[in-house]
Amino acid sequence: MLERLNKILKASISQSFRGRDFLTLRDYTPEELWHILKVALIMKEVPRIPILQGKILGMIFSKSSTRTRVSFEVGMLHLGGAPLFLNQQDIQLGRGETIADTARVLSRYLDGIMIRTYLQSDVEELGCWSDVPVINGLTDLFHPCQAMADYLTIYEHFGAIKGLKIAFIGDGNNVANSLMLGAAKFGADFMLACPQGYEPDAKVVAWAKEAAVLTGSSVEIVHDPKAAASGAHVLYTDVWTSMGQEAEQEERIQAFADYQINQSLLELAVDDSIVMHCLPAHRGEEISDDVLDGPRSKVFDEAENRLHVQKAILALLMQD
Ligand code: CP
Ligand code: NVA
Q: Of the four, 14, 112, 227, 278, which is 20 to 30 A from 133 by CA?
């Protein structure tokens, strides 16, 4: 297996990843995204392979995290490297040091940077000034590592991604945006149902539609959750109120009241459909307890797959 991994990391497609940032799925071709899944499947079979021996990943967090923090930390340790947790409040970035200066300083110490923050433009600026790969661990606009773990989970269940119908019920948020771009790149049909006013970012929808033309898939934004759920292979949801939107919580609970994944919505999906959620979940809001804990739920496999897919991304970007 180690031989297989070494061989795949030496392939010319793997070489094209070296030193790059991973900020949005938009920057990667369908072939490259499939390659990440392929490497992730090998990582899953052999958890500890010291291919990033001695390398250090800095992890800047300005929002909370359980899965992202722990899976990146464990992933670096499995690969023989080390993670360095940097709470934005504890570093000078939190006191106004510029992103450009922070990037140039951290590049002198680290081999890679993972960042979770608010603005996608901040992550892009960091990537622009950094000499080492920068990985997006969630912004208000995107959550690309989550989407890759989701597609690994979908592929493992169905043995394919192309031609499936993926229904996202809920807020047109960061998780929805990355899932939508991924669907278009992998050739799945994507339908998102949300209340009026909570649609995904228009430019991201336009990018996804452009990508969907190339893979022969479709991207649709609707307001009827039943239309999205009908015939779906994947029913996906996320919290109604994302980090940073806490002041809108009450109005969001009202706006999204009809957008819960529950047993009656699940009955509209195909027989072997799966239910997904990036977690953390607000049980009883965007998803009912029985569905989250039910036989169709893949939420803990998704969480596990964060580890495998991120190890593939780390290895591809940070390898010598
Ligand atoms: N899904 C996800 O990114 O979870 P955390 O916020 O716990 O990292
Ligand atoms: N949309 C959620 C995802 C958390 C993993 C948020 O941004 O808070």
A: 278
Nearest to 130 by CA among 316, 319, 310, 318: 318
- Dmax (CA) for the chain in angstroms is 55
The answer to whether the CB of 173 is under 6 A from ligand 2 is: yes
Q: Which residues line ligand 1 (CB under 6 A)?
A: 65-68, 138, 146, 278-280
Query: Which entry of 78, 145, 146, 201 is annotated as an active-site residue?
Result: 146
Q: Which CATH number fits domain 2-143+305-318: 3.40.50.150, 3.30.2130.10, 3.40.190.120, 3.40.50.1370?
A: 3.40.50.1370
Provide φ and ψ at 37, rounded to 5°: -65, -40
33-84 per-position pLDDT tens digit: 999 999 999 999 998 999 999 999 999 999 999 999 999 999 999 999 999 9
Q: Which fold, 146-302? A: Rossmann fold (3.40.50)
User: Is 301 annotated in the active site?
Assistant: no
Q: Which of 35, 145, 277, 278 is catalytic?
A: 278
pLDDT digits (tens, 9 = 90+) for 266-286: 999 999 999 999 999 999 999
Closest listed ligand to the CA of 238: 2
Residue of the CA atom closest to atom 1 of ligand 2: 242
Read off the tokens for 25.
Answer: 């799925």
Q: Which ligand is nearest to the CA of 66?
A: 1
Judging by beta carbons within 10 Å of its beta carbon (0-12, 13-18, 19+), is residue 154 exposed, middle or buried?
A: buried
pTM of the model: 0.98
